[in-house]
Amino acid sequence: MLEPGSIAAAALGGGMIGLAAALLMGLNGRVLGVSGMAAGIITPAAPLRERLERGVFLLGVLAGGLLLALVLPQALPGAYSHDRVLLISAGLLVGFGTRLGSGCTSGHGVCGIARLSPRSLVATAIFMASGIVTVYVVRHVLGGAL
User: Fold this and answer.
1) For residue 46, which phi and psi values (nearest 5 degrees)?
2) How far apart are CA 75 and CA 8, in angstroms?
3) Could you say which DSSP state residue 45 is in?
4) Domain layout of the chain by residue ranges
5) CA–CA distance from 62 to each of 55, 59, 97, 102, 145 (Å)?
6) Does residue 32 contact residue 107 with C-beta atoms inside 8 Å?
7) Cα separation of 63 and 55, whole Å?
8) Rounded to whole angstroms, how far apart are CA atoms 34 and 20?
9) Global model pTM greater than 0.85
10) How far is CA 138 from the centre of its chain?
11) 8 A C-beta contact, residue 135 and residue 67
12) How far apart are alpha carbons 48 and 57 in whole angstroms?
């Protein structure tokens, strides 16, 4: 059995994301970018079939996370917060960042880097640097834990 947080678990998860990205590109000719998928659902100009496909994909992503939380809750230590202000603020910041960066870590970090996109390489470096700075500030400056 895979231990949560182990290198094998991370490799399996990364492999599954890579497989999903490759299948979506190979079968539908689309880049796996979750923020783009979400934006495409609410775009009225998009054909209904396309919006439904995106919705089903995103429901699958959410269902997978929910299933993992129910079956193996120790795999997600500290992933939950009951602080609504924190959750709403984090969601708005992530949404703003994905619009500002023209994509998210799945689109730029997984698919863009695989295609050697210079824009995605820069965006991913900025995502990673921002995450590192955020963890440092929260843990060492503000004295909290993530």
Assistant:
1) -70, 145
2) 13
3) T
4) 7-141
5) 11, 5, 20, 22, 25
6) yes
7) 12
8) 12
9) no
10) 21
11) no
12) 14
